Amino acid sequence: MAEKNNYHDKTRGGVMIKAEKKNYITYLTVLASLAVVMLHCNFRWYGFGYERSWVTSNFLRSVMIFAVPVFFMVTGATLIDYRKRYSTKEFVIKRVKRTVIPFLAWSVIGGVLIMAEKNQWLRIDEFTSAVLGCKFIDFYWFFPALFGVYLAIPFLSLIPEDKRKSAFAYAIICGFVLNSLLPFVIRFLPITYDREHFIFPAMGGYLLLVLIGYYLSHFELIKKQRIVVYSLGIVGLLMMIFGTWWASFDAGKISYMFEGYQNVPCVLYSTAIFLVVRNMKSSKLTRIFDRVLVPFAGLAYGIYLVQWFVLHFVAKVEWIDRGGIWYRTLGGVSVYLICAAVVWVLKKMPVTRRIV
């Protein structure tokens, strides 16, 4: 996925100067991996109801939804500068080894497991289609989107560094306004438009989040700008919590009006999360993060890969109430720790260490 990259707070012309180590990328990576597991333990959200359990699940989902956007932001922050470290050929080889092969390996393992449990065996073409379409493990939808980002990064990296601040700012503004803000606003107006064609094509897929991550990690925002981002992030979080609550109760089913990783509320909230962690000063909290989060840094990617298998077997334990608040909170942390332990063991084994 992404690679660790360290910066410190000194700037020259607004550009971050690479120097002493700073762990904010590690913090974000581990926090995002935990949030993903918490989201997947919160499946109660998909069973809409007027009960308090759905309201709490909606709150938890809104708080943890930053996970996927932040993963993409970290990817932009750490990989667009890859040419400083190695060639494009090596970049491609690293991405294939670290993401493509593990994705295929675990998809195949999951597919075989599911077919064996159901005693329903697919033809090779059906099996291949199911793997590539993430039909066996729907959590893996993330990987095809990530692969598309990887293909775009060599192109983005060719933009001269001295032009990136203005070029990326332009792309971010156009992408956010046309691809996120406009569709969001139109939902509240009695008008329609051709959304399929009225977009900013250069920001297709998840590139908006990728460039936001690069921009925030490489260019310093002044205090007033940070306050604006933080304020908008709070607004985005509140829109997801209360907007989804209100719209869903009004519709009698889950409303996706305020949902979506590229929708305005989530983009604002996730950007604020990234910036908050990016600008953390050394404090008691950062020392706690160093002790608690940093040890999981090398396990985060593997945790994303194996969590489906852990959750699959947890679902078979009849005495676990997976809809209860304890499972959706402390249970999510427990599942994360189990996944971490599994990955730690797999990394010690010669055969499996290459796929986690």
Element layout with pairings:
Layout: E1 11-12, E2 15-16, H1 24-40, H2 52-64, H3 67-79, H4 88-118, H5 124-132, H6 142-157, H7 161-186, H8 207-218, H9 223-251, H10 264-278, H11 284-292, H12 300-314, H13 325-347
Antiparallel strand pairs: 1-2
Helix pairs in contact: 1-3, 1-12, 1-13, 2-9, 3-8, 3-10, 4-5, 4-6, 7-8, 8-10, 9-10, 12-13
Query: Over the alpha carbons, how many angstroms does the gyration radius reach?
Result: 21 Å
> What is the mean predicted local confidence, pLDDT?
92
**Bulk shape:** globular
Instruction: Please describe the biggest sheet, giving its number of strands, its sense, and whether it closes into a barrel.
Output: 2 strands, antiparallel
Could you give the order of strands across the largest sheet? 1-2
Structural class by helix and strand composition: mainly alpha
Provide the number of structural domains: 1
Number of strands: 2
Separation, N- and C-terminal Cα atoms? 11 Å
Low-confidence stretches: 4-21
- Beta-strand share of residues: under 5%
Secondary structure: helix percent: 55-70%
